[in-house]
Design goal:
The complex is a heterodimer of chains A (606) and B (208). By secondary structure, chain A is of the alpha/beta class. In chain A, 54% of the residues lie in helices and 9% in strands. Chain A folds into four domains: 185 residues; 62 residues, no CATH class; 73 residues; 252 residues, Alpha/Beta hydrolase fold, catalytic domain (Rossmann fold, 3-Layer(aba) Sandwich). In chain A, the strands form three sheets. In chain A, strands 3-4-6-5-7-8-9-12 form an eight-stranded mixed β-sheet. A two-stranded antiparallel sheet of chain A has the order 1-2. In chain A, 39% of the residues are buried. Chain B is globular and about 40 Å long. Helices cover 22% and strands 26% of the residues of chain B. In chain B, the strands form two sheets. Chain B has a seven-stranded mixed β-sheet with strand order 3-4-5-6-2-1-8. Chain B has a single domain, classed as TBP-like (2-Layer Sandwich), CATH 3.30.2030. The chains are: A alpha/beta (606), B alpha+beta (208). The interface between A and B is large, with 36 and 42 residues.
Chain lengths: 606, 208
Amino acid sequence: MSSLSWRTFYLTGYTGLDDAAAVWDRYISEAADFEATLIDGIPVLKEGAADQARDDFDGETADLVRGQARHIAERFLDDLDAYASHIKVLLQEAKTDFETKRDELAGLFAEKSVYLTAEGEPGEERFEVNESDLYNYLTGSGTVEPMNEYEADAYEQRVREQAVDLSDRFKTLMDSVRELDDQYAADFKALNDDPPPLPPYVGSDFEAKTAEYLQEQHQDFLDKIESGDAIPEEVNDWWNSLAEGDQELFVHELPELVGPVDGIPTEDRDTANRILLDQEIADFSPTLDEDIAVIEDRIAEIEGNWSEIVANGDSIDRAEELEQLREELARLQGERVTYNELVDLQSAIAEESPTGQQYYLLGYDSAGDGKAIVSVGNPDTADNTVVYVPGTGGDLDGAGGNDLQRAETMAGDAAQVAGSGETAVMVWLDYDAPNNPIMNSPSLSYAEDASEPLASFMSGLDATNHDPEETTTTVIGHSYGTTVIGQAASEYGLDTDQIVAVASPGMTVDHASELGIDPDDFYSTTAPGDLINAAAEATLILGSDPNDGGLNIQGGGLDSGFGGTSFDSDNMGWSPVDIHSNYWDDGNPARKNMAMIFTGNGDQVT
Amino acid sequence: MSQGLPELEFNRGEAFLRMDEAIAQTIEGLPDFPGFQDRTTLKLDCSEEGRESYEINYTFPEETIGSDLVTKEYFTVLKEHWSSLGWEIHGERDDVDGNIADIQATRPDGVNIWYSNMLGQAVIHAQVACVEAEGDPVCGPPLGGVTPENDHTKYCTLETPDDSTSETAEAIAPFGGTTAADVPGAAPWARGPEDPESPMSDPYADQL
């Protein structure tokens, strides 16, 4: 506990704390200048800038040395900045707090009677009555006129009562001053003056070690990303604050922290996810097919000799072995399916797309049915961006196959619209799509689980786009994919200009205005004979029909309809099941209408 | 799978050659043909196991965007030309202003051709629906002077006439009554821009 006495406290000048704070402030400024001198002022250490000196010190090793020099400088300067800033703030706060308390004490002194005197050691502060002076005053000694007895008694009582009252306040105030003194002493003592760890030295495993060092430096924000507390805009700001060399280290050494994160630019996510995909494929056993064949042979052998096994009394052991073999076979065959899907995805995005655009892998997950986000064209730089959400049956296989082909078709069709610029089309399958159109699709749970990831992805696109104000963004869903969009749009809101619903069973809302966009920016189509008509009407679980133009009489009055614009699509066949998938077929006018919408020409749909 | 198309008498291996052949026949009827800007190939949905659908797109050059030639005259010409070839006309659609914007025709062998006005940009699509997925998809050099950098052929393997030789000629021989040797040009059935000075003419000359 502090032993600060009221006399010391009252007589101390606190402007010295301000002077000390100013000194620390100067250190901070000089540190910033030093950083500019060290990093930016020495060309060979400056990253990402064309310079003769830098050109002379070029290559991978030079980049590593540059990165290490920057890390070392940042390590000291960041530490100094944090340490000095903390001290400065503490000094400034202490000055303010102590001066405030001293003003309070001065107020007590001003308030007290002239016949009271401050006395007492720490913890015993009080005001004592100056008895002789008070007696002289009351009895009229000297030049003062004497009071009558009644007045003198009353005056004396007031002085004595004030002594008691002010003594309480005096002691309480000084107790709080000593607490403050203790608190600042503890704060200054708690300042961490241990230097942070040095970055790794250039040498073997330097990149991996530096990446580990970087991860530790940024762990707080990485934890925020992991917990879902960092919005994509914050992620984008954080990413852009990193030096180019550090971004590369994150991408190449810590791809799992980059690939799936909304708000990180498309090029970097793509590189990270391709690294992860290559690694996962390489991790599969090279003898997978042989292992499967060995087990199949052994199963065939046991089954083929079963009569003999029974005759030999070995049936219980062999039956047990058979069960284990079948379980292992199922596991390996599952691995084989996953391996094939991953290889197919890798192959599908290896070359340029049929539209001449590059593919970008914005995320994937091989667990379960698998998930993937693949883009035809770079959405960060395109003039128009389209996010396609597939419906029932969507899986990893489709993201590299049928659904990707639809994205290519949409990108190709959009490119043909005069003056359209580039249109990037993404397959967004970052959700567990229902597998069975009869058993699963009427359930809303898949859409509920998908809505937050879709909203986050759209916000990420907005954060990484070069010019979000001028880019036309559209989210288009097919079948159950429209339900996902409706759920996400109504629950979280989507960063999109337009929404398109193709063959929708319902979007969980009754009107386009509930989707968070202008209803004029909502478009829908369902071809005549599509099975989804019957499915949607039969369940009504997923909401109103988005194609309802408001012409049907319902409940005795005119239905106001869903809102938005319906556009034509042909059935292109007779089978209700096939019609549901024919919207991207050869010659279907739906394709042209979608191209018009994607390129900002929605007023041209027919 | 599109309904009403005849049973296809060819498989995936011939699909792109058939589609390019149909487009070659189409542009034979186009007056003042300006050539093409680019070619792309697409793979489309087919719900039948073991079958696949494909498409080739050719866009007209930028300088033709909005011209009467491609947005009006060619619709009239193609209607007559396709009919004269015995192809079934369908898919006529107008734009929001009431002007014709789409027309399609199906060749007797099932290849569908779609001529479309995309806000002034003319495009020809050739399509085959649900061919048997047998044979490697091969495509010949592009028509209409498309330069190599504008020729995007992800879904077919590009073969120059030197590569394909008699096999390609035989592949197209059963249809149209012409053989590869009957038609001069970069591809057996190719037709370049009518302007012989065009920089787009014969881009594959150095490969022949």
